[in-house]
Design goal:
The strands form 2 sheets. A 5-stranded parallel β-sheet has the order 3-2-1-4-5, with helices on both faces. Strands 6-7 form a two-stranded antiparallel sheet. The two termini are 18 Å apart. The protein contains 3 helices and 7 strands; from the N terminus they run E-H-E-E-E-H-E-E-E-H. By secondary structure, the chain is α/β, with parallel strands linked by helices. The protein is globular and about 35 Å long.
Length: 139
Amino acid sequence: MDYLPVFLDIRNKKVVVEGNGVLAARRVERALEAGAKVALFAPDPTDEMADLMSHAHLTHFARDLTEGDLTDCLLAYAATEDSGRDKQMQRWATAVGTLCNISNAPDLSDFISPSIVDRSPITVAISTSGKAPVIARIL
């Protein structure tokens, strides 16, 4: 086993997502579904974000993330698809003790996001340790 499976209570906790596209939208959506207060840093959000932008627990910042934005943050998701920006977030998150996930870079991440089957009250998480995410989604 490469990762410790954990279900976190993130209700009313700050979760930061940086990114404009599909990957960022998925991270925002899951965090909101789990009750987090999401801070989205996206200078130019794509259409995938449209339905999420009016959510009461989402605060959108139309700019890039800065180091101070990670204050009091439990989890951070780097989903810019710009490896330089994503690695910068990871360094800042590490410095303040925030767990960070870089989309499509499990080797640089503190945690991975598994595929999820949500049939409330039953939730199943499936992981391939980041090696075959498409297979995890199929399962």
